[in-house]
Amino acid sequence: MIKDKIISLLPYAEPFLFVDDLEHIDDDGCIGSYTYPKDSFFYAGHFIGNPITPGVILTETMAQIGLVCLGIYLMREKINETTQLPEMAMVSTDINYFLPVLPDEKVTVTSRKVYFRFGKLKCAVELRNSQKALVCKGTISGMISSKPLSQLQNR
Amino acid sequence: MDKKELIEALKEVAQPYIQDEEAFRHMTEETNFIDDLKINSANLVDIILDVEDKFDIVIEDNEMEDMLTVKSTMAIISRKLQEK
User: Fold this and answer.
1) DSSP assignment of A89-131, as one string?
2) Domains in chain A: how many in total?
3) Do A118 and B48 count as a contact with CB atoms less than 8 A apart?
4) Domain of A100: which CATH number?
């Protein structure tokens, strides 16, 4: 499965798509990047007169690249593009933050699969800035199903 | 391991994930992890993984689908321990 195909299958769009490029992906993890445009919607209010990328957006970026892109890749054989895309729900995050990210900064996310069992994908993720300095790191987990999630949760 | 020991061991595994203290205090073989203890599907996976570690067994995907109640979980653990 090619990397552009994975990005095209992501269930996100502007202004909430935080994946520009996937540099590497295999069964054990992936590396991808995103640049936060300076006119991104959240800079208008975070913070007043002092635009800094919100931590929740950094976490979302790690989830979209590290968990969702990897999840689509791991489910590649079960994906029937016409009828059934995998559905995902973030179920847990544990992230520590070390540096701020300013408008127009490019960040790179590295994700390593901890386990993918019984539909739960747990990844160790880290996000670095263009100087390769550590911005944030931790673990993110999600449930992935080729069945609609509503069915899964009602079981 | 007898039934009583097994249910106590299972209680220990489940405790970090339960969301209903009252139901947990009265946990019996009939208790359902999701309906009674209000454990979500993600934490149910954590319980299965912890069960694997605690009893040194491997649970298959199709077996996990049956592990929704204390009773069915105990049955699978017992069978796996006997097979060892």
Assistant:
1) EEEEEEEEE-S---TT-EEEEEEEEEEEETTEEEEEEEEE-TT
2) 1
3) yes
4) 3.10.129.10
